[in-house]
Amino acid sequence: MRHRASFLQLALFAIASAVILIIVAYAIPWLPYPASREAGRINFVYWFAEWISIGIFAIVAAPLMYSLWAFRVKEGDTSDGPPVHGHTGLEITWTAIPFLLVTAIAVASAIVLAKNGDAGANPTRITVTGQQFAWTFTYPNGQTYPILRLPLKRHVLLTLTSKDVLHSFWIPELYQKQDAVPGLPTKLVVTPTRTGVYPVICVELCGLGHSTMRSTAIVMDDAAYDSWYSGAAKAAAAPAPGGGLAVFNANGCGACHTLAAAKAAGKVGPDLDKLKQEAATAGQPLQAFVKQSIVDPNAYIAPGYQKGVMPATFGQTITGPKLDQLVQYLVSNAK
Ligand code: CUA
Predict the structure, then answer these.
(1) Is the pLDDT of residue 67 over 50?
(2) What is the spatial distance between Cα 63 and Cα 19, in angstroms, rounded to a whole number?
(3) How far is ligand 1, taken at its centre, from the CA of residue 179, in Å?
């Protein structure tokens, strides 16, 4: 018995396959909404390849589904199927079309890669330093911060380095990922297009505290960024308006430590409600013990905890009056 698929039947199968795929592709938010020009271009390449894949799948799935239905074996039929030979025209077609499509994806990707690597004539330069287990961001004025602030719609050239092991810098909304390698500076160009607060995540397993190696990126409009930047050096040297609690919260101490006064319940590091007892165990005066534990956390490790989990970067990012405020705050709440 011979069947001949009508063009209409095949077209209906192809349309049904495509509709299912389009629903899966669009109903689920697979990727965050892009927040930079570079992310927008990557998003374009993603959907360009996605639409080609949807088309190819539909064209392949239609004759497959049709054949499963039309050529299924009748009950009791044990005869061989008809001999099928190659079809030169078909083979040339299904080689040439994918070749053109894959070439188109390669060309689009190459153009996007080249554009995404172009920092323009005068980018804002920020050095990103990875260190077990924290990120720090150093600006052209020499100031170093635990939070990344980015100006809206300006080219930013990030230079990434690491002080110890491999880390990888990722802001999901900016799409790009880049390794931070000790001794080998790597580059990343970002041009933010949406103001907002985004997570900075380490995406290279770098040790015991890898999952806690997170920071925040704040994209600010021009005026806000400029006023922050011009006042930043002064603000860094001034006491925090909210006192020691504000310093505690601004540096995310509560993510790892318990401190009843700050309503913090972290369990990664030692309990800060028991600082007096811990200083006694370490055999040090309380105030000196607290200060050393912040700026040089590996100098003494409380029993039951591991070296290198607390970032050694707070000595650079919490300085001057803010450090004194934090030490006084912890000392005054110590039990
Ligand atoms: Cu740094 Cu994972």
Answers:
(1) yes
(2) 16
(3) 10
